[in-house]
Amino acid sequence: MYTLSPAHEKRLLWLLALTQFTIIMDFMVMMPLGPQLMQDFQITPTAFATAVSVYSWCAGLSGLFAVTYIDRFDRRRLLLVVYALFALSNLICALADSYSLLLAARAFAGITGGVLGSVVMAIVSDAIPAHRRGAAMGIIMTAFSLAAIAGVPAGVVLGAHFGWAAPFILLVVLSALIWVAALQIIPSLAGHLSKHPPALSQVLPELWSLFSNTRHLNAFAFTFTMMVSQMLVIPFISPTLVANHGLQPEMLAWIYMAGGAATFFTSRLVGRMADRYGNRRVFRVAVLLSALPVLLVTHMPDLAFVWILVLFTCFMVTVSGRFVPMQALMTTVPEPARRGAFLSANSAIQSLGTGCGAWLGGMMLSTTANGQIVGYGTVGWTAVALAIAAVLWVNRVKSGEHKQSAPAKELDVAVKPLSEA
Q1: Which of 374, 388, 355, 385 shows the shortest CA–CA distance to 298?
Q2: Residue 185: closest CA among 54, 13, 12
Q3: Is residue 390 part of a domain?
Q4: N or C: which end of the chain has fewer CB within 10 A?
């Protein structure tokens, strides 16, 4: 374990949070830019969905394969190299003048983003003592709220006034500033190299055993189903609002800002409720509560902007509310000794589910001669059906931890995510 002063530790954690912020913004900002991308590149909803999906697919696969080599390099050096490549991928994306080049740039961004996510978690595990790791992860996780509240709205405003490439230029600039800060703040983290990382012939069987465990497979299927359900709907909210309801692109910023601000407060409330009433119970309630907003968003009549704002906020709150108990439940599945490897693999499954959901959603949509998007209602019903299937499947998600004395506490115990990883 490395010894850092409290001030240095805090600077490191906020730097890593900002790194995560750029990765999350890079993925999220594509969705509200959908209307402009579809118009400028003259592409269908399916082609747009592929551009969204390829990032997630590549991020999932690269994050999974990172298990085979991430422990063979100095953490600091690996982060600096991969983050520079991440910035380069966004520059290529901003300069793309064809759909094929845009697709390649998004795949490149996904590959680097997936590895960066694994490196950030590894640095936290190496540099922060176990008894403070939960609080450290709390700082890192603020990146999601910051991306929703500030990053995506800023990208939408820039895209509306200066073209769809502007948010990616912003990401390049932010990444360059963070890279320079990382050069100064992140210490050399090479202590793990003295332990002689296991040979590839040992790593691959371990990876196989992770995916051949029935308890793990049930959990992975649960995760995959929920991510597909969410991403069937989310990427196409902005294109549908613009094409079908005449909303101006710059107005999308207010929608994402309102939804992100609301989830910043409600996510913690849902977390406390999950601790009190149990992860499974809160998950089931959240899914049932989310069904109506999902169907309203996908079957939306023409509404005044204020009602669209209210509806989207309800959608964000209820859909994100499903994710909190789901994540807490996942931390109970593996044995404590394998928690880090399991959560890394589960993160890869999330990315693959995200990509598949966006791609399938795009396949179910089509564009009329006057530019309107049709088929979104079917997408909504499919998303609700998958979420209900996950409610039925959740009983198969079993704990790998020691059984609690009270049967009701088998899975729904207060969890310390990643603090023991």
Answers
A1: 374
A2: 12
A3: yes
A4: N
pLDDT tens across 365-414, in order? 888 878 788 899 999 999 999 999 999 998 888 877 544 434 444 333 33
Could you tell me which residue, 9 or 42, shows the higher pLDDT?
42
Dihedral angle computed from the Cα positions of residues 152, 157, 158 and 163, in that order, rounded to the nearest 10 degrees: 110
SS3 content of the chain, % helix, strand, coil (to 5): 80, 0, 20
Q: Could you give the CA distance from residue 332 to residue 125 in angstroms, rounded to a whole number?
A: 18
Of 197, 232, 265, the residue that ends a domain is 197
Reading the block at residue 361, the tokens are: 């959603």
108 and 47, same domain (yes or no): yes
Verify that 138 and 277 share a domain, yes or no. no
Please state the separation of Cα 216 from the chain's center in Å: 20
Cα distance between residue 138 and residue 3, in whole Å: 20
Cα distance between residue 332 and residue 282, in whole Å: 16
* Number of structural domains in the chain: 2
Beta bridge partners of 366: 374
